[in-house]
Task: structure prediction
Amino acid sequence: MALVNTTAAAAIGANDTAISVTATAGFADKQLIRVDNEWMAQVGAAAGLVVQVRRGLEGSAQIAHGILANVTTGLSGDWPSSPAGSAVSVAPTPGRISIGADTTLTTASLPTGNTTYVITKGSACVITLEAPSKAQDGLQVTFRSASAFAHTVTYAAGYLGTAGSSDIATFTASVGASMTIEANAGTWGVIALSSVAAA
Result:
């Protein structure tokens, strides 16, 4: 069998034990499922478009996932770095979190490692970003659009250190638009912009 990809049909809460997907072809009992950076295992047969799951496997964090987040399923041997016949153990993936609704990322809710936020909202998403703590120096965060809307990421102090003239990063209405920022001395600075303007 090969890996099968679909998307979340609804947002997934951090404590949900069932997920709704847009298609269940290829899903089966005891298969591994990856949503963003979280590993799960299917428990029983799918009921319509709802799949019962056991969450937070392989040491992954059990977190919320946005609507239209990528959902991938397969047998343990289908995943790279899992030799056929070996015990189930999958390689860690870089941090990835989907955002399917307007969101405020507080200093406390920021990830501990470099992370990509994939914006999946089916309309313009409004994201507000608080300043990082000085303990988060070097943390890099990427926002990437998976939907063709003019998303915004607002940082009140300004990405270029100029509040009022570089505090709103606006994405062009295109899939793949992205921005990468880095924490330094309690502020965010721009590393890269692609089809995004900070004004």
